[in-house]
């Protein structure tokens, strides 16, 4: 394996070094559940758009980072497969048979106890989506996609997956935009952390062997990027698998980034779930264990109330999953573009700066940059005041200066923490289209670093192009809108975690299957809070509250 370069110096303004060429390296993606699989489908559809279909096509990205190129013996053409392992529940693939495009189809013997459920499953099996039929005919008619008929990630997926990239859990049945149900005991839901731990044991061998298959196809692995959900059983399944592969393949030293998404947060606001202490404890356990299993943890909780969004159907996973895809795609581009490429290792070192405990990226924003006219052109994302009032809480506006300042930057917030008064940033990170966008007048972005906050700036000239892929839904005010990405670490995460600690401290019920050691979980939460308090004298008392 190639030797890693030393960490970049801790400059006040950190631009990663520009490289005109990049060595071959790979990133393996693991995705768990319908929401994460829908997100990664948007990402891989953009990767598909970068595949050259003519010899004179100019390549801007190292395709081998996320795609595996296979050239059959004696063939003049090559096939590209995602370097990925996707997990879903039974019937979660929609009409796709994972062996549909495979040369050999194995004979499977899956035990079935509930015959009535099996018969119902057969009668309600999905029909192949019209968009997929058009792809089979060598066409791509995206007009066939709409929220009424696009329910599975396989409905709009454009790449063919190797059969060893797809694993389904036989014991739980897919339910659209809801928790899966036990195939034989339908009242049992796929909602608790402990359920995921148990289910991994049932297919752990297959999961590890398929992971080994893809690992052996890597020459120089940058690391693993995982997409999972915090608020259902996939969190437990994910941590159980990470523990095994870290121990078996990496001696617990591999870079593991986890994008922990909230799939069911709209449903959780119901009175029933507010009263469910069991579910609250499960979500707390999930968050802490995903944090402990990662080298970088990015929890994502999108706020759909933004003037940058238009015609967003929040009940459509096809729609909502493309919002985190905008953010993750910008990072993928930095990882695999030929010019100004920055590896996972260097991005992680730049962000952590030697403190591995402060690894929660708690503020993530997609920030609109407006247009050259300054009025927004009626799109709602310009810099004028009138076009962006819907983004502002007018009860908190004290003067016109504050109003103008807030209206100048429409944004989509994806993090569990947002910008607020009296927070202290540990570091800031930007992904911009060009360095020329920085510190300029007019509508372009301007970064203020008067406080000496460590800041990393990355360039990705292609990150907005994902909105032009034919399967990307029209959820933005305009597909021509320009934006940049911010992902930051600040001590506001303490306010997010303190209620977690209080909940566990007050826990009277016995949830041994979920929390084996209550004191250990409290200590884990306290240690995280403490790590974001150290170095800030005024926060010391806050830690002991």
UniProtKB/TrEMBL annotation:
Its main location: mitochondrion. Residues 25-137 form the Misato Segment II tubulin-like domain. It is found in: Mitochondrion. InterPro entries: DML1/Misato (IPR049942), DML1/Misato_tubulin (IPR029209), Misato_II_tubulin-like (IPR019605), Tubulin/FtsZ_GTPase_sf (IPR036525). The keyword Mitochondrion applies. One of its GO terms (biological process) is mitochondrion organization. Keywords: Mitochondrion. Gene3D superfamilies: Tubulin/FtsZ, GTPase domain. One of its GO terms (cellular component) is mitochondrion. It comes from the Eukaryota. The keyword Chaperone does not apply. Residues 145-331 form the DML1/Misato tubulin domain. Involved in the partitioning of the mitochondrial organelle and mitochondrial DNA (mtDNA) inheritance. Belongs to the misato family. This is Protein DML1.
């Amino acid at each position: 394996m190639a030797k890693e370069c030393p960490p970049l110096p801790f400059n006040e303004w950190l631009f990663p070094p520009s490289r005109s060429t990049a060595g071959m390296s790979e990133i393996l993606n693991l995705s768990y559940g319908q929401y994460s699989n829908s997100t990664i489908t948007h990402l891989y559809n953009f990767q598909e758009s970068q595949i050259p279909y003519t010899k004179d096509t100019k390549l801007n990205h190292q395709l081998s980072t996320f795609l595996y190129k296979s050239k059959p013996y004696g063939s003049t053409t090559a096939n590209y497969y995602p370097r990925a392992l996707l997990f879903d529940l039974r019937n979660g693939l929609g009409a796709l048979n994972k062996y549909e495009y495979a040369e050999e189809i194995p004979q499977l013997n899956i035990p079935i106890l509930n015959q009535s459920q099996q018969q119902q499953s057969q009668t309600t099996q999905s029909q192949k989506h019209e968009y997929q039929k058009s792809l089979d005919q060598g066409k791509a008619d995206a007009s066939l996609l709409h929220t009424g008929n696009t329910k599975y990630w396989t409905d709009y997926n454009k790449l063919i997956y190797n059969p060893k990239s797809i694993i389904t859990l036989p014991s739980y049945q897919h339910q659209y935009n809801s928790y899966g149900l036990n195939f034989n005991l339908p009242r049992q839901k796929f909602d608790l952390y402990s359920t995921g731990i148990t289910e991994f044991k049932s297919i752990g061998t297959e999961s590890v062997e398929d992971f080994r298959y893809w690992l052996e196809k890597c020459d120089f692995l940058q690391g693993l990027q995982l997409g999972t959900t915090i608020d259902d059983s996939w969190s437990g399944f994910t941590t159980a698998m990470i523990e095994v592969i870290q121990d078996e393949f990496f001696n617990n030293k591999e870079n593991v980034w986890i994008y922990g998404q909230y799939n069911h947060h709209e449903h959780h606001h119901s009175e029933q779930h507010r009263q469910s202490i069991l579910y609250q404890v499960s979500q707390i356990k999930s968050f802490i264990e995903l944090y402990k299993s990662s080298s970088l943890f990015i929890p994502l909780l999108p706020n759909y109330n933004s003037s940058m969004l238009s015609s967003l159907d929040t009940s459509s996973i096809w729609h909502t999953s493309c919002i985190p895809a905008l953010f993750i795609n910008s990072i993928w581009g930095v990882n695999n573009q030929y010019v100004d490429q920055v590896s996972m290792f260097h991005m992680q070192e730049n962000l952590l700066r030697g403190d591995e405990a402060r690894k929660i990226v708690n503020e993530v924003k997609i920030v609109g940059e407006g247009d050259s006219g300054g009025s927004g052109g009626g799109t709602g994302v310009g810099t004028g005041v009138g076009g962006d009032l819907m983004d502002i809480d007018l009860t908190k506006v004290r003067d016109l200066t504050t109003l103008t300042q807030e209206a100048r930057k429409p944004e989509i917030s994806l993090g569990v923490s947002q910008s607020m008064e009296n927070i202290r940033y540990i570091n800031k990170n930007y992904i911009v289209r060009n360095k020329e966008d920085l510190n300029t007048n007019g509508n372009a972005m301007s970064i203020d670093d008067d406080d000496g906050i460590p800041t990393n700036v990355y360039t990705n000239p292609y990150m907005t192009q994902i909105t032009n892929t034919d399967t990307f839904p029209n959820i933005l005010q305009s597909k021509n809108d320009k934006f940049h990405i911010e992902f930051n670490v600040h001590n506001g995460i303490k306010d997010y975690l303190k209620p977690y600690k209080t909940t566990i401290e007050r826990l009277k019920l016995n949830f041994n299957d979920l929390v084996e050691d209550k004191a250990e979980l409290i200590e884990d939460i306290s240690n995280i809070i403490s790590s974001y308090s150290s170095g800030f004298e005024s926060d010391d008392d806050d830690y002991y509250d």
